[in-house]
């Protein structure tokens, strides 16, 4: 029997690989000789780098970059390997820091970057949140480091940012000049975009043109307006109603200047407003294509090939609810398995409202792992044991079916 285990992480508890290992441990208690292939996956959000590094036997690059408030912070990104976990192996990843000498990656390596690692809201104390001044410069530094290592394919995950600067800081880190009417470099932050007069790309990082960018984006907000970056995402980053209006006007002007400098007008493109307008920035400066995160991850880790010939696929995430069918990892895995006629089971930390929606889409069954009511801290601490026990019970039912 071949079983593929392809879960997302259980947030605040277990990485996707740790989830897969716990499920394998439970299954092997009752099906010791089954062929198990583990494929940690993600939907482009938090945990995507670790999941994809684990799934491919890649490595983590750690370095110090500029945080949202201009202070130096520790950040990281992943360089994918070419392997896949299976046959009981616990880990194919090299999780150590690799921030030393620049390596030659001209053989086709892929880097995976989460914007939040460098420019995330977690870097900004709640009382200091101010999207008028926060910058995405650190994300640009991660991209620059990957380019300098010879990377020619970068996957960038949006989300979790503390910024509303339209990717201006990222562009500046890549030596794209953003100038005011006096020819001076624009200061950091979303508010400064109101004074943008000229964009000079003549000295942009020379390797940008040789690199292809895929951007994981799971929102469809335009840049400006009632559904734009400032109105929808600004308040969680510290924007008051007055700031929202100021930032929205600044982003609109920013888009005008981008167009006046000969670049395509993407302000109404679905996802342009993602991550404080970073969606627009990556399209304008990186010539990137925005795609659903789960699609990028599934394709990159080769999920379709890895599940071929499986008798069962097991997926999961920390919470399965009515939103899971809208592009979350279990739904992406389910779709791939359905194309090959393979039954799929979902395991979750808990089941939320309308969790049965995924059953209507073809999931065979879903299982929560919490055995009884407990404080949240206990639930998180016991996640591995509860996962193992749940998987063991699923395996026992499978064996009954074999009899």
Automatic annotation (TrEMBL):
The keyword Cell division does not apply. It comes from the Bacteria. Keywords: Kinase, Transferase. Its EC number is 2.7.1.31. One of its GO terms (biological process) is organic acid phosphorylation. SUPFAM superfamilies: Glycerate kinase I. One of its GO terms (molecular function) is glycerate kinase activity. Belongs to the glycerate kinase type-1 family. This is Glycerate kinase.
